[in-house]
Design a protein that fits this description.
It is a single chain. The strands form two sheets. A five-stranded parallel β-sheet has the order 2-5-1-6-7, sandwiched between helices. A two-stranded antiparallel ribbon has the order 3-4. It has a single domain, classed as Rossmann fold (3-Layer(aba) Sandwich). It has eight helices and seven strands, in the order E-H-E-H-H-E-E-H-E-H-E-H-H-E-H. With 204 residues, it is of the alpha/beta class. A hairpin with a 7-residue loop joins strand 3 and strand 4.
């Protein structure tokens, strides 16, 4: 059986994670799973995809004290689930996809979920001022507002990752094969570098 190419992308907000993942997918001919993963998890569980979207979105403003609290999703079939169960469903979906073929996963602690598999784990970051400019342009807000938003979102991602990985710290270099400042090479250059690194290391 041929070895599957599995790449996981962790990223700070505004560092171009989704764009770089898309470039990797185009150049390698590999499907990228991000928002699609939510839909597949919903199909697997029989729940509305809106349940998963709300779960993702509410982490930006709910504290850790609410993570395992039951949340009523109103018009989404009134499903009573906590985030731990949603994470389990998504994790099972990630593992099934990885077992069936080549894939690139963006976020959702996929490096941890697939820790027992032969993967290329990448973490993308960039200076706050650069990421703030990217987010300001994307959202049509001031750079000051964007910096505050970026800081909040980074914290939400860190809290989510660290909670479900039992403290396997988000963004810590030792957790990844490659940590890359995307502002140095740009998105195209970062994608080229990741591919070169993966090939030299036998992961691609």
């Amino acid at each position: 059986m041929d070895k599957h190419i599995i790449i996981t992308i962790g990223r700070q907000i505004g560092s171009g994670g989704k764009s770089i993942a898309s470039l990797l997918g185009e150049r390698l001919g590999i499907p990228v799973y991000d928002s699609e993963l939510i839909t597949r998890a919903a199909q697997k569980s029989g729940l509305s995809s809106a349940v998963f979207k709300v779960s993702d979105e509410k982490r930006s403003f709910l504290g850790l004290g609410n993570i395992f609290g039951s949340v009523r999703f109103g018009d989404f079939g009134r499903n009573m689930l906590n985030d731990g169960e949603l994470f389990r469903i998504q994790s099972e979906t990630i593992r099934e996809i990885a077992a069936s073929g080549d894939a690139i996963f963006v976020g959702r602690a996929s490096d941890y979920v697939l820790r027992d598999m032969d993967t290329l784990d990448v973490f993308l970051f960039a200076p706050l001022e650069i990421r703030s400019r990217v987010v300001a342009a994307r959202r049509g807000i001031s750079e000051k507002e964007a910096a505050e938003y970026v800081t909040r979102q980074d914290k939400a991602r860190r809290d989510y990752y660290n909670l479900f990985t039992l403290g396997d710290n988000w963004g810590v270099a030792s957790n990844y094969d490659l940590c890359l400042d995307s502002s140095i090479l740009g998105y195209e250059g970062a994608a080229d570098y990741i591919i070169s690194f993966g090939r030299q290391g036998g992961r691609i």
